[in-house]
Write a structure and sequence with these properties.
By secondary structure, this protein is α/β, with parallel strands linked by helices. It contains 19 helices and ten strands. The protein folds into two domains: 24-360, ABC transporter transmembrane region fold; 377-613, P-loop containing nucleotide triphosphate hydrolases (Rossmann fold, 3-Layer(aba) Sandwich), CATH 3.40.50. The strands form two sheets. The protein has a six-stranded mixed beta sheet, sandwiched between helices. A four-stranded antiparallel beta sheet has the order 2-1-4-5, covered by helices on one side.
Length: 618
């Protein structure tokens, strides 16, 4: 982390390979991103701009009104009245109020009180708008992710989705806040400039020229902010993925002694992030370093100019100095907010790209014209499936599974067993052929109705950091405690749950760390059974269980047999030896099917060979 500005950690191509906002394409792209992102908030931003203008106008008028007030204190007018003071005098005459010190002071107090109210409304609206945008954006991104297709989710790197949904959305909110600040600063600077012109046109003109010079001077830093912010955005995603991947495999990391190598890899991302952040923060802060001494020098120059020109007026000079100081402050704020906009635009671009990707990969939730009616067979009719670059995962697979039967699916690794399960769950759609229910193409049945009738339990039991009851309920608040306990008994986990400190109210911890692997598996089974599915798919649920727990699962299967259609994918042959039918997959094709007894009788069959290797009891 030392030598943050050294070339050792400097990302290669950071100044050359990334586009800047100064080219025509860059400007169009940035404006397009901002317009697309905040289009729905344009009226709110416009209203805030009006409030900012009104607030600055009140402040400027109030300051301008102090000039004649000071003149009253000094014993009379000193010099010609400016246009704003003339308007105030005319207003007093119009309403019949004497133009005196007391009434002028009262007017100034009212103006500043009104400005405070306007600023309060502005601040409240700004906070509410930012909070509303943040909440709606996170909600929208989360909903879109939930509705994305399974193949798209599989392609995402670990941690990237979380980073986009939450952290990129927060940065996008900061971008909105930067835009609001930019609008406030710009309108404030313009209003104060107009009031300053009213008091002293020459000094204001000189101030404006100096402001333009400062902006031109700081222009290269704006380019750097945008460039390094893009590096920050991409590096944060890479670092999040690396950390997420490491945490998921933490046990393997510890066991293999790979901690140092993984730390070094993380440090590469962290060094790159540190360098880009340092550059970004430097570019953001350096402007204010020059702005304050420039303002001081300029104010001294104004004093000298006014004093030696013979037109020096204390009140006008004080008001002009105050206004110029405010102008410099707002110019500095405008520059900082513009840096902020450029800093956070890459995150808005990421979210815009993410939304487009999710829209292209949205799960097609067919409403379907036919109900889920299962009275005969669940069938694969010449089904083939390809997944992107992988060709031929399944080739012309055909089979029937009768309602209420117990079907086992076996085969070597990579034979397509889990793909069959994914097709049954409709996470994938066949690239050829049809999955049918009683002769009806499943595409004609709504995905929601289909999944409500089918339950799935995988080898890697998914357990939330919540109570046992909430894990079994799984967001279905219509389920009663009685139904949850019944499902736990069916899954042979009830007694284990009752031995936990708080029974069904025991919190299981992150990924269920407070219970064993077998207990996690059976809690997942209870979650599936409590839904009373018509079809239950078990994917390698016994592969990591000991013999005693495997027998519990086998007993559960025996009890459910006939009441539920069971599809069991198994590596351990003993789990499916009692099946009505076994399907053998090999190389994406259906190599064999039939009753276990017939297959075992054929010593050359896959089932017979694997049973012998596993010393299965037949």
């Amino acid at each position: 982390m030392v030598g943050v500005m050294s070339s050792k950690v400097r990302p290669e191509g950071d100044d050359r390979d990334l586009p800047t906002p100064y080219s025509a394409k860059g400007v169009v792209r940035v404006v397009s991103v901002l317009w697309g992102t905040f289009y729905g908030y344009r009226r709110y931003v416009g209203l805030l701009a009006l409030l900012a203008i009104f607030s600055a106008a009140l402040d400027g008028i109030g300051i301008n009104a102090i000039i004649p007030l000071v003149s009253f204190v000094m014993g009379g007018q000193s010099g010609p009245l400016d246009s704003i003071t003339q308007v105030i005098v005319s207003l007093f005459a119009y309403v019949g109020i004497p133009y005196t010190f007391r009434y002028l002071l009262f007017l100034i107090i009212c103006i500043f009180l009104m400005r405070s109210v306007v600023l309060g409304v502005f601040t409240y609206m700004r906070a509410r708008i930012s909070a509303r945008f943040m909440a709606s954006e996170v909600d929208s991104l989360f909903r879109s992710t939930i509705r994305a297709s399974w193949p798209y989710i599989l392609r995402q790197k670990g941690g990237n989705l979380q980073n986009t949904i939450f952290w990129d959305a927060r940065r996008e909110t900061q971008l909105l806040d930067g835009i609001i600040q930019f609008v406030q600063s710009t309108t404030g600077a313009v209003m104060y400039l107009l009031v300053a012109i009213n008091i002293s046109p020459m000094l204001t003109l000189i101030t404006s020229v100096l402001g333009v010079v400062v902006i031109v001077f700081l222009r290269p830093m704006l380019k750097g902010t945008h460039t390094y912010s893009q590096i920050v955005a991409s590096t944060e995603k890479a670092l999040t993925h690396h950390i997420s991947e490491t945490i998921q495999g933490f046990k393997q990391v510890k066991a293999s002694g790979a901690g140092d190598a993984i730390t070094r890899k993380g440090s590469e991302h962290i060094d790159k992030l540190e360098y880009a952040l340092a550059k970004t923060y430097f570019n953001q802060g350096i402007g204010s370093v020059f702005m304050q001494p420039l303002a001081l020098v300029f104010i001294v120059g104004i004093f000298a100019f006014s004093y030696f020109s013979g037109t020096f007026q204390v009140a006008a000079f004080a008001a002009t100095v105050y206004l110029i100081q405010k102008i410099f402050t707002y110019v500095s704020s405008t520059q900082a907010s513009f840096h902020s906009i450029l800093q956070f635009v890459p995150f808005a671009e990421n979210i815009a790209a993410f939304k487009q990707e999710v829209a292209r990969n949205h799960e097609i939730a067919s409403k379907g014209t036919k109900p889920f009616v299962f009275s005969e067979n669940l069938s694969f009719d010449n089904v083939s499936f390809d997944y992107e670059s992988k060709e031929g995962i399944l080739h012309g697979v055909s089979f029937d599974i009768k309602k209420g039967s117990f079907a086992g699916i076996i085969g070597p690794s990579g034979s397509g067993k889990t793909t069959v399960a994914d097709l049954i769950l409709r996470l994938f759609e066949p690239t050829a052929g049809e999955v049918q229910l009683d002769g009806v193409n499943v595409r004609d049945i709504s995905v929601k109705e289909w999944r409500n009738a089918i339950a799935y339990v995988s080898q890697d039991a998914f357990i939330m950091n919540a109570s046992v009851a909430d894990n079994i309920r799984f967001f279905d608040d219509t389920l009663t405690r009685e139904a949850i306990e019944t499902a736990a008994r069916q899954a042979h986990i009830y007694d284990d749950i009752m031995r936990l400190p708080s029974g069904f109210d025991t919190v299981l911890g992150d990924r269920g760390v407070t219970v064993s692997g077998g207990q996690r598996q059976r809690i997942s089974l209870a979650r599936a059974l409590v839904r009373k599915p018509q079809v239950l798919v078990l994917d390698e649920v016994t592969s990591s269980l000991d013999s005693e727990l495997e027998r519990d699962i086998q007993e559960m299967i025996a009890q459910l047999r006939g009441a539920i259609t069971l599809i069991v994918i198994a590596h351990r042959i003993a789990t499916v030896l009692d099946a009505d039918k076994i399907l053998v997959l090999d190389g994406g094709s259906l190599a064999d099917e039939g009753a276990p007894s017939k297959m075992l009788a054929d010593k050359d069959s896959y089932l017979s060979r694997i049973a012998s290797l596993q010393n299965a009891s037949v």
